[in-house]
Amino acid sequence: MADLFEENTKGIEPLAERMRPRDFGDFYGQEEIVGKGKPLREAVEKDELRSVILWGPPGTGKTTLAHIIAEKTKGFFQPFSAATSGVPELRKLIEEAQKRLKFDKRKTILFVDEIHRFNKAQQDTFLPYVEKGTIILIGATTENPSFELNSPLLSRSMVLVLKPLTDEALEKIINRALSDATRGLGEHRAKLDEDAKAAIIGFADGDARVALNALEFIILSASRIVFSNSPLRQGYEGQARELENKPKDRDNAGGIKITKKMAEEALQKKAIRYDKKGEEHYNVISAFIKSMRDSDADGALYWLARMIEGGEDPRFIARRMIIFASEDIGNALPTALVVAVAVAGAVEHVGMPEAGINLAHGATYLASAPKSNASYKGLLAALADAKEHGALPVPLHLRNAVTNLMKELGYHQGYKYAHDFKDAKVAQEHLPEKLRGKKYYKPPVQTSNAPLLKKKGAKKS
């Protein structure tokens, strides 16, 4: 029998919140982390947990896992958002945690959502209290912790990687919601055909929250049930009414039968599968870069469109275009870098969706430009020598003689000032003695400033 709270909130809370797992056994899709015998589960069950950083895409269970840990350890669960609160609020919560530990002998599990929103100086606030055991910190982030969190905090925490949920895990989550009459949608006796279920799973793209919210909307629409206070309904009223006016399929047992067509109509469109944090993110940006490198403007536009439609951060695309302009075009067309930087500025000033036009402008320009990776290859070769040979001494004639002792030691002697020579061209050695004669930069014939570089090819004395 449902408790009073569940009865009162069932029509208000979204399905994803109602179906939040309360035990490791119901926590699907992250068995590598919470399976029996795994370090995290053992630490929780023995009440020996130390601070944890949960890293993963949205909807993979970071918040849910924090709730389960708090329940299993009997700790006081204190949520905190780094996106909406600051250090003063944090200090107040820590003071309360100190009192709770002193007077009630109860640990505080401080769950910090979006912990990467705190800069590294703000993150230092946690350190003394984590070290003393005043709080057990559970930080959730969608960003790479090695870049976004400071080293002292990482060294004191267990970092766990939550992966996008597999199709099998999402199917289990959907089936559980359909059969649970207390917290889920069991009272509707809805049945999804396999294609409808696959459509929801594809739309969710590894995100349990998206899958459950989509499922709830489809079932409510098909059942002619409208919870006006449900956040899920906002923005979909017209669409819901249209679906509700259509004839409904029911099986012999009186339950609602959901078809693929009904699911896709409710979701408005088939989702483009694009995980902004996973492998597909890298696959698509790779295809975009390679299309521009191969001077295929059409391919570049298509992959650009895929990223835009998939919700990729336009600033990420612009940054990659800036890198491409120097790595793959370089001095073959120096203005390519100017255009790429201008596109990045336009993205910042204009914003989406109109900034997509700026991105298309830049992508087609870069794809159509002559190509040269001579600067990039030259850098790699120079880096290899710098690494292999270490800190070779700077030739004496290239050193500034700022003291009399330096002059006596031969600093700056024999240096030729370029502007004292015709066309400011001078033949003198600029590499360490061990590397004399090495050629790092080898521009192709089509490089726009190749004639200039050819003139500089005078023999060195």
Automatic annotation (TrEMBL):
Family under the similarity heading: Belongs to the AAA ATPase family. RarA/MGS1/WRNIP1 subfamily.
Ranges where the record places region Disordered: 435-461
Keywords in alphabetical order: ATP-binding, DNA replication, Nucleotide-binding
GO molecular function, one term: ATP binding
CDD domains: AAA (cd00009), HLD_clamp_RarA (cd18139)
Organism encoding this protein: Candidatus Sungiibacteriota bacterium
Role of this protein: DNA-dependent ATPase that plays important roles in cellular responses to stalled DNA replication processes.
Domain of life: Bacteria
Domain AAA+ ATPase: 48-165
InterPro entries listed in its UniProt record: AAA+_ATPase, AAA_assoc_2, AAA_ATPase_RarA/MGS1/WRNIP1, ATPase_AAA_core, DNA_pol3_clamp-load_cplx_C, MgsA_C, P-loop_NTPase
Pfam families given in the database record: AAA, AAA_assoc_2, MgsA_C
BP GO annotations: DNA synthesis involved in DNA repair; DNA-templated DNA replication
Name under which the protein is recorded: Replication-associated recombination protein A
